[in-house]
TrEMBL record:
Protein species of origin: Saccharibacillus brassicae
Disordered: annotated span: 76-98, 130-157
Family: Belongs to the cycloisomerase 2 family.
Any one GO MF annotation of this record: 6-phosphogluconolactonase activity
Name of this chain's protein: Lactonase family protein
Higher taxonomy: Bacteria, Bacillati, Bacillota, Bacilli, Bacillales
GO CC term (a single one): cytosol
Biased composition (Basic and acidic residues): 141-150
Length: 356
């Protein structure tokens, strides 16, 4: 994006067959929140989660299916269009998350079917699978926690430690990478029935926030940057008690605002976004408000340029909200981008943000 064109490029993953367009390039007007589709790509089934390399040269996508795949695309530096680059097995079923390490040398993937995988990123974004770890255990939920279900796999801000929230076991597995291989460093236990799904670190690097999909909570954890240990310190409900206990309501995505002052969580079923204010001295959360997300099943959202873009899986649109500069409150812009089953929004960062 430049100061002159007020355009942010972003990419959208959807649930789609490999014979139809399912991965989209779009733009956001950063003055008013209006969005437009630029182009679409086919050839990938269910590109349900996306991530961009730290150097902005590659986009990675999962193909969420029984025999999962991870795909790499090159990003044209001028047009921002995507070109297929590499395709590898995810070494598991139903991959649901992918993220590069901060240095861009490794790519982390979570397979909902029960394992986490590490790929080395070779020249031009070509991937080589180097390590795979199968999770074990279960949880108390009779339907959703009969076996492990890692749902995300993230790096600490300094890239030293890796964390994999497991929805099926109520644990967050901790890893390190040595010689491109994963080594387990222990687990963080959460209350039974939490169903940890997604995890976001605070910009200060001292705290992390985890969505409880099954109990509709957000858990704040203190993070020791020396030892890499996470310690649960606070759990806050996302919904009123009666709604939180309704199995039709399941929490989805968590994100921290770039300024670090606010945390947002999307709620499926209730179809809302809950906002918290963070205490910058200790990372603790205070509830601010819960607002309608503008559609049905807000599975994912992204924050960029003072806007929140919420992807609605069932109603088929991405809705933009302006974020209040002082209070972080969400105000609908009135703009929506119509797409079939959008489930991930992935903004392309500015070149000025790239450190590698």
């Amino acid at each position: 994006m430049t100061a002159l064109d007020h355009t942010r490029h972003f990419y959208v993953g959807t649930y789609a067959s490999d014979t139809e367009e399912g991965l989209f390039h779009a733009t956001l007007n950063t003055e008013n929140g209006e969005m437009h589709v630029v182009s679409g790509l086919g050839g990938i089934e269910n590109p349900s989660y996306l991530a961009i390399s730290p150097n902005r040269r590659n986009l990675y996508a999962v193909s969420e299916k029984e025999y999962g795949e991870i795909l790499s695309y090159t990003i044209d530096p001028d047009t921002k269009e995507l070109n297929p680059n590499d395709r590898q097995s995810s070494e598991g079923s139903s991959p649901c998350f992918v993220e590069p390490t901060p240095d861009g040398k490794m790519l982390l993937a979570a397979n909902y079917g029960g394992c986490v995988v590490a790929f080395a990123v070779r020249d031009r974004g070509v991937l080589e699978q180097t390590s795979r770890v199968r999770h074990t255990g279960s949880g108390p939920h009779p339907e959703r926690q009969t076996e492990p279900h890692p749902h995300s796999f993230v790096s600490s801000p300094d890239g030293v430690y890796l964390f994999a929230p497991d929805l099926g076991t109520d644990r967050i597995a901790q890893y390190t990478l040595e010689d491109e291989r994963l080594f387990n460093q222990g687990e963080i236990e959460l209350p039974g029935g939490t169903g940890p799904r997604t995890m976001a670190f605070h910009p200060k690097g001292k705290w992390a926030y985890v969505t409880g999909e099954l109990d509709n909570t957000v858990t704040m954890l203190d993070y020791d940057m020396q030892s890499g240990r996470l310690a649960p310190a606070q759990s806050e409900p996302l919904l009123p008690e009666l709604q939180a206990s309704d199995p039709a309501n399941t929490a989805a995505h968590t994100a921290v605002s770039p300024c670090g002052r606010f945390v947002y969580v999307s709620n499926r079923g209730d179809d809302s976004i809950t906002q918290f204010k963070t205490d910058l001295s200790n990372g603790r959360l205070t509830f601010v408000e819960r607002v309608p997300s503008g559609g049905r099943v807000p599975r994912h959202f992204a924050i960029t340029d003072g806007f929140l873009l919420a992807a609605h899986q069932d109603s088929g649109q991405i809705v933009s909200f302006a974020i209040g500069e002082e209070d972080g409150r969400l105000t609908p812009t009135g703009f929506a981008l119509e797409l079939n089953r959008p489930v991930c929004v992935c903004p392309l960062p500015d070149a000025a943000d790239v450190t590698i």
